[in-house]
Amino acid sequence: MLIEKMALGPFQCNCSILACETTNEAIVVDPGAEAERILQDLRERGWKPKYLVHTHAHLDHVGATEGLHRATHAEVCLHREDAFLYDNVAMQAALFRLPSFTVPTVTQWIEDRDVLSFGNYKLEVLHTPGHTPGSLSFYVPTEAGPQVFTGDTLFMGSIGRTDLWGGDMPTLLRSIKDKLMGMGDDAVVHPGHGPETTIGEEKRHNPFLRRSF
């Protein structure tokens, strides 16, 4: 599997493109901003997005969804419990004094343990609430080892904030413990912001996890 990542927009949200090297089918994870930049990357590589998947519906993770969906007609995927955030992106933007924008209709509601296929690969959906009620992580086994895209649930050396709409710290910690920490230590973690890490590194060094587990 091929992975292309870019930090986009004022919040530097990590957008990841996962592509099958055989079929060129792709999944875009968290198209948060700069739709034309993402589209240009897809065009240059000849990748064809099948799904636009979102770890959650905060504005910095959905800002480019409209532009990508209009250009590619890829399925727009989100957990239903974040619909209230997705439907209120204009309010979110106003609170941060950012320009308003629109989002397309969700075409596929995804839930825990759903599987999305692209080319020769499969992406497993994990419901990891806490940062938001509908927060998701995405697990993909690859020839290079397991890859997990955690959005704003787990970061290098930190965890997601829980002081925004629908956040809950005990729920977040339970999600990390039950859904993420059981993965092998070599699982590569691709957070929604900042550098990648591994499950093993976070078990050993993340102060929030050492204190909690």
Notes on the structure:
28% of the residues lie in helices and 29% in strands. Strands 1-2-3-4-5-6 form a 6-stranded mixed β-sheet, with helices on one face. Strands 7-8-9-10-13-14 form a 6-stranded mixed β-sheet. Strands 11-12 form a two-stranded antiparallel ribbon. With 213 residues, it is α/β, with parallel strands linked by helices. The protein has one domain: Metallo-beta-lactamase, Chain A (4-Layer Sandwich), CATH 3.60.15.10. The chain contains 8 helices and 14 strands.
Care to count the β-strands?
14
For the residues shown, what is the average pLDDT?
96
Classify the helix fraction into a percent range.
25-40%
Strand order of the largest sheet: 1-2-3-4-5-6
CATH topology: Metallo-beta-lactamase, Chain A
CATH level-two architecture: 4-Layer Sandwich
Low-confidence stretches: none
